[in-house]
Write a structure and sequence with these properties.
single chain; globular; four-stranded antiparallel beta sheet; alpha+beta
Length: about 70
């Protein structure tokens, strides 16, 4: 069973930013799909098992951006 979570990310401003975040988050184990949206400031992650916020935060940090937290 997969889980999908949307996180707020600050600092993304273009398609290159979206690709950087998507590439890092996609490398996490179990990730099926990633959709980063610079305009909305979000990244939506679908994974085969729930990821911890810390895992996603580390990947977003590696891409050079800041994860604020999960969307309500």
């Amino acid at each position: 069973m997969s889980s999908t979570t949307t996180y707020t990310v600050t600092g993304m401003s273009c398609g290159h930013c979206e690709k950087s975040v998507s590439a890092e988050v996609s490398a996490l184990p179990g990730v099926i799909e990633v959709a980063a949206d610079a305009k909305a400031g979000t990244v939506t992650v679908s994974a085969s098992a729930p990821l911890t916020e810390e895992q996603v935060r580390a990947a977003v940090d590696e891409a050079g951006f800041a994860l604020v937290g999960q969307e309500a």
